[in-house]
UniProtKB/TrEMBL annotation:
Organism in which the protein naturally occurs: Maribacter orientalis
This protein's name: DUF2200 domain-containing protein
Lineage: Bacteria, Pseudomonadati, Bacteroidota, Flavobacteriia, Flavobacteriales
A Pfam family it matches: DUF2200
Lineage top rank: taxon: Bacteria
Length: 121
């Protein structure tokens, strides 16, 4: 499945803070915690919980969110299908980063062990 420029632009302009509560609800519904979610986000982006809250308060877009992030060097090992797209094949770098995050949230919600989610060897 190939994403369109309209799709990529829509993702870039979405406000991270408007999606974050959905991430929290998804993982909590499956018995995981907000703290675990924040740990996963920190692993991917380098954002501490305080920094994450500041970005939410600033109402940053996903574009700005990932511009400010220090993506983990093992992020390239995030593979699989999320939202109908194979994450390793997504051509737009920003859309791929957003889908990396979606994939990690999905893995957390599905009960995957934290060391597997964080790609610990």
């Amino acid at each position: 499945m190939k994403s369109t420029s309209h799709h990529d632009e829509r993702i870039a302009k979405m406000i991270f803070g408007s999606v974050y509560p959905h991430y929290v609800a998804k993982v909590e519904k499956k018995g995981r915690t907000k703290e675990e979610l924040n740990q996963v986000i920190e692993w991917l982006t380098g954002f501490t919980e305080n920094r994450l809250q500041k970005l939410i308060d600033e109402k940053v877009t996903f574009e700005t969110f990932f511009e400010r992030a220090a993506l983990h060097s093992n992020a390239q090992y995030i593979t699989g299908i999320i939202c109908g797209y194979r994450v390793e094949d997504i051509e737009n770098p920003l859309t791929q980063k957003v889908r990396y995050l979606d994939k990690l949230v999905d893995e957390l919600a599905k009960g995957r062990k934290m060391e597997k989610i964080l790609r610990v060897s």
